[in-house]
Structures are given as structure tokens and as C-alpha cells.
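Long-time lurker. I teach an intro course on protein structure, and each term I like to show students one example going from raw sequence to a predicted 3D structure in C-alpha cell notation. This year I'd like something fresh instead of my usual example. Would anyone be willing to generate the C-alpha cells for the chain below so I can use it in lecture? Attribution to the forum is fine with me.
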Amino acid sequence: MPAPVVSAPVVVAEVFRSGFVEGHHHGSVVALATDGSVDRAVGDVHGTMLPRSCSKPLQAAAMLRCGLDLDGELLALASASHSGEAFHLAGVRRILRGAGLDETALQTPPDLPIDDQAREDYLRAGGPRSSVAMNCSGKHAAMLATCVVNGWDTASYLEPDHPLQRSIADYVAEVTGVPVEVVAVDGCGAPLLSTTLVGLATAFRTVATATDGPERRVADAIRTFPEYASGTRRDEAALLHAVPGSVGKAGAESCYALGLPDGRAVALKTDDGSARVRPVLMAAALERLGVTSESWVDADAVRRTGVVPLLGGGRPVGEIRATPWW
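-- Reply from a regular --
Happy to contribute to a lecture. Here you go:
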């Protein structure tokens, strides 16, 4: 039977080292049925939360509605928290050039690639902290391109009352079915719009099941170019390959959302914001929902995305494992 909705985050994972539980992760998880209704839930799935970078595919769809002309790998990059690999940085520059701009127009804070190997390669080549290397630069480049298409000011594109950001806010409220109650500032400096876990899952369901329009364009881009939407070594890309037709995005503070082509969707978040537990919970949710039993899903690959070993002396001595919340 589906678990009852609980009003606060609960223990969703435990840190298991050398046969001893040394810690816990508290969080919330919701799954939608094929008709969009809440199928299973644990924790606080109706409370206001900040979806962080899970918002990016929704922001990309809103920009398409405003006239942004991107598809394929560049649209996937506009939806990405990219790893900072060379092809990501080249793609960001392509988006900017297409709008008649260069990377000086970006207002992302200077940073290094977030992927360990990409960062080492970048530093070895003498790369400095830069706005283009920051993982949100694809989204920002697309925002600037959208401004150019509409004749909007590019210098103030991050202001919440800018026409671009107002259009995005209207779209996010529409696609989630939840009024935006909080407008915060995301790590990249862009407006961050609140929703709920149910609203986030609903939005990803809409994108994953779309047959046309901006949502379908975003879905096709992410499905076809998952490495542009994250990176070649990321668990997000591995999961999209393992569950064909799905559309997913992770975000900071351990947020994660996934829409399946049959209309099911999952959204989750942990209280402590630990990135390490995020893939563990998504893999467990898909297993418990029976997704890994589907003939079109690579069950072993899904399970591998949820394996997070704990090391001792350089070798695995434990793991982070989901508790039996469903």
C-alpha cells in the first residue's frame, strides 16, 4: 500500500560504515502515478521548497515560449548544470555568438568546472576562474539570447522584474500548478522560484509527456544529448541512458526530479542538502515503483547510479543506503 503523507522530513537514508550506522539523511520523496495524481509520498511534499537547478529545464521551456531559437545540444546545454568539459564551454560560446554576444555579457560568478577531471584538465591548460566555466553558464547564455530576440536589456537580465524573469516566473507557476511564494537568489545569481515537490514532479511529468511545443523540444534535447545536460561522467546522464525517454535534472541541496514517458514522475529533496545521497534515493524510488522491472529499462544501470560507497583506507567499507520508506 502507498505510504501515508508525513508532514515533515523523515529518515530516508542511512550512512552504513563497517557494519555500523553512523548517520542519517532526512528528506522527502514523492511519486506521481501515470495520471498525475500522487501515488506515494513520504515527508513534506506539499511545503514550499526551492528546487535549485531542477528548475533549468522549466526555465529553458519558458525561454522557448519567449522566442529563443535553440534546439538539440545547445538547448540541452541551456537546461544544464554542466560539468565544464571542453564541449560544454564551446557550446556556451556558440549560444552567445548566435546572439551577437561574447562571454563578457555573462553575469555568472567566475568559477572552475565542477567535474573533477574537467577541472584538472582546465587548470592544466592554464584556465582561470571564469564566467563561462561556471556550471550555469549555458542557462545564462540562453537568457541573454532570449533578451536579444525580444529587444530586452541584457545588462539587467537577472533582475526579478526584468521581462525575461517575469515570463519565466509566470511559466513556472503554470507548469507546476503552484503559485510562486518565494523569489530567492540562486547560486548563479539568477532568480530562484519556489514550488513544492508535488509541483516539481508535476512539471517534469508535463515535460516528459509533451507531444509538441516548448516542453517537447526541451524533452527531446535532454533525451538526445544527456551529456550536454550534465556531463560525460555524471550519474544524471547515466540514469537518462538507463531509462529511455525520461527527462531528469538534479540540483543543489540534494534536489532531484525525473519525469517518465508513461506519465509517472519522482521528485525528492533532503534536509541536509548532501549531494551524495541524491542518486541513492532516486535509484531506490525507481526500484520500489517497479520501473526497473520494465523491459525498456536497464535495471542494472539504474541500480549502479545509486551505489555510493564509503571508503576506509582507500577501499569500500560501507555505503549510503535508502531506508524502507515505501
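Some talking points for your students: The two ends are 8 Å apart (CA to CA). Residues 62 and 168 are 5 Å apart (CA to CA).
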